[in-house]
Amino acid sequence: LLDARGTRLMQGMQAAFDRARVPAVVAGFPEIFHVAMGLTEKPRNWHDLLRMDKVRYVAFTTALLRHGVRALERGAWFLSTEHDDEVIDATLEAVALALREI
Question: How many CA atoms are closer than 13 Å to the CA of 21, on its beta-carbon side?
Fold first, then answer.
């Protein structure tokens, strides 16, 4: 169940970035993944991650917070059993709203 929810969150976030034409890569495992704004290809190492747009990502996480979602400024996302379908839906809605603001 956690796999399915995490996968839906990751795919939904990637789709939101793509729709907003904001370069970003959502990669990792459904329970633990990373969002790298400013990249167009999956990072292979920490050198690739140095090209992330950290300023824009912090603006994104700040906008998310205004919409009730707390995300780490370093790009790491973690899921737990508390993240039910309602929370995933609300998070994806907040992602779409935040992307309009940055």
Answer: 0
Joined tokens for residue 35:
């969002």
Structure tokens at 92: 């994806």
- pLDDT per position as a tens digit, 28-84: 999 999 999 999 999 999 999 999 999 999 999 999 999 999 999 999 999 999 999
Per-residue pLDDT, averaged over 1-26, amounts to 97
Cβ(63)–Cβ(71) below 8 Å: no
Instruction: Please give the radius of gyration of the chain, using alpha carbons only, rounded to the nearest integer.
Output: 13
| 28 strand-pairing partners | 33
- Ranges of beta strands (E only) in the chain are 24-28, 32-37, 76-78
Q: Rounded to two decimals, what is the model's pTM?
A: 0.94
Residues 6+ apart with CB under 8 A from 48: 39, 41
Q: How many CB atoms lie within 10 A of CB 22?
A: 15
Residues 6+ apart with CB under 8 A from 7: 30
